[in-house]
Amino acid sequence: MKTFYWLVKREYWEHRGGFLWAPIVTGGIFVLLNIMGIITAEVFGARHGLMIGGNNELTQLVAKANAGDLAQVGNALDLAFISSMAIISVVLGFVVLFYCLGSLYDDRRDHSVLFWKSLPISDTTTVLSKVVSATVLAPIIAVVVSIALGMLLIMIFALVLSFHGVSAWQLLSQAHPLRATISLLCAIPLYALWALPAVGWLMLCSVWARTKPFLWAVLIPALTGLMISWFGIMNLLNLSSSWFWTHIFQRILISVFPVSSLQSYNIDVESFSHVHQDGPLALIDPIRIYSLLASPGLWIGVIAGAVLIIAAIRLRRARDDS
Amino acid sequence: MNTVITASGLNKRYKNTHALDQVSFQIESGRIVGLIGPNGAGKTTALKAILGLTDFDGQLNVLGLDPRTQRNQLMEQVCFIADVAVLPRWIRVREAVDFVANVHPRFDRVKCETFLARTKLQPEQRVKQMSKGMIVQLHLALVMAIDARLLVLDEPTLGLDILYRKQFYQSLLEDYFDENKTIIITTHQVEEIEHILTDLMFIRDGKIVLDADMDAIGERFAEVMVSADKAASARQMNPLDERQVFGKSIFLFDGADRAVLEGMGEVRRPSISDLFVATMKGTYA
């Protein structure tokens, strides 16, 4: 257990740039853009005499607003929270993608694999520590950063509104940062399960490729997909070729992006009306997200991911590069 | 004395070369063995087999374990330095020490820090900011702090200047080696390890062509400097090698009669490099 902890720590040391700084820098840029937007709006408003706060119109607006209107304000703030998460989740997807591709390749390329292999650590432990770094450590850091970012954004908006005489606390009480935080934390285990086939495939390419793992990881499924689409092989199995793209291609490459699981829910008219009623946080509601556990697709993916990871462990042991 | 490595009938083929061809040998505890051979002779393959880094046919027992199946236990007792570039470039001195201290059960942190204190390495320094010599100093400090029974060195001083090379072998001898430890070294800089070796193995085309301890080599091989008039008779004694220096001939003999040789001229113990060149004649031809 101690060894495993230190192996994960080693991954963090090596990939601090991707795991920690990439989300922080992205968040920082996002905050900066928002502040610039606010300043532009303020300047624009001042120039054109649209200072709504000056004569307390907004305050009166809020005072007159009914519960439903206030809920809309809360939804807007929640949306600010969620948008910061969405942006960081995209960054997380890229970080995990390239982390997995390099995880069992970089140390072979610079020969440091010989140093790691000179220590009494099994290949299984090594590979699993990398899987955990990709599916647990990186998402936890990303979630913590996006929570901090969301809070910061809400604070900024509340502060700006309070300059216009609106009670910031009244508005903030309409947002649900705690609910958003809990939903996000709850989503991590599901992300780990959802991303497993992609993590497995990318790590298998990483351990197998002699050069350019990225190319192999993308080319093999892409060319297979093209062949299938071209010759209509899937028709033989009574499946359309789009089945391949959604059930194989996306699951072994795109699943590292957390938002990619959203598309497998039926976002029909009904669920949109949910969003309308329950606010944007309904999108990442734990009950909604975990309904995916009932889909066989998730579990088939988990099994496929496990098989790919076992294959990666085997290959890691056997790889002899000189 | 107990046996550290027993190999019998090791075989390993790459596509069209025999990297190991029926290799058998034994290495006892408390020895420093030089495994010397030309490029591509199978040195690294032999070491990799011992370390469980490659597959092979035949029987191999290292410290009572099979390196193919019991690698993880084996690595607690075995250390190796492959060549200078193997420490990851991103790691800091502090991180490397922390990591090894926490994953290796036989690592002595105090010892490692004592070794590091003798160098210019700083705790926050990254490997990528170090010279080759400093990387080896770090690696050696890590390895020497591990109480292992077998140390495998594959070209450990490649690309180092002479100060670092001397210091490397000196530290090994003074601070590390004792009768419970065994060291296997491969290197092309034979002259530098000549005086520290206890045993010598020559490998050529996947075969062990010479396997003897240094005393035996001194008795078996002899080099005689012969003046021109006696050269013809020396040639008749079937020397391994002949070369000319200042109008005299130097002959290298394997198992020739000492008394006869002393009658012909000055007898010396041959250097390993001369012995090597004579043994490997025609390797690249």
TrEMBL record, chain A:
Keywords: Membrane, Transmembrane, Transmembrane helix. It comes from the Bacteria. The chain crosses the membrane at residues 20-41, 79-105, 136-161, 182-209, 215-236, 287-313. This is Uncharacterized protein. It comes from Dyella tabacisoli.
UniProtKB/TrEMBL annotation, chain B:
Residues 5-230 form the ABC transporter domain. Keywords: ATP-binding, Nucleotide-binding, Transport. SMART domains: AAA (SM00382). One of its GO terms (molecular function) is ATP binding. Gene3D superfamilies: P-loop containing nucleotide triphosphate hydrolases (3.40.50.300). Signal peptide: none annotated. InterPro entries: AAA+_ATPase, ABC_transporter-like_ATP-bd, ABC_Transporter_VariousFunc, P-loop_NTPase. This is ABC transporter ATP-binding protein. It comes from Dyella tabacisoli. The lineage of its organism: Bacteria, Pseudomonadati, Pseudomonadota, Gammaproteobacteria, Lysobacterales.
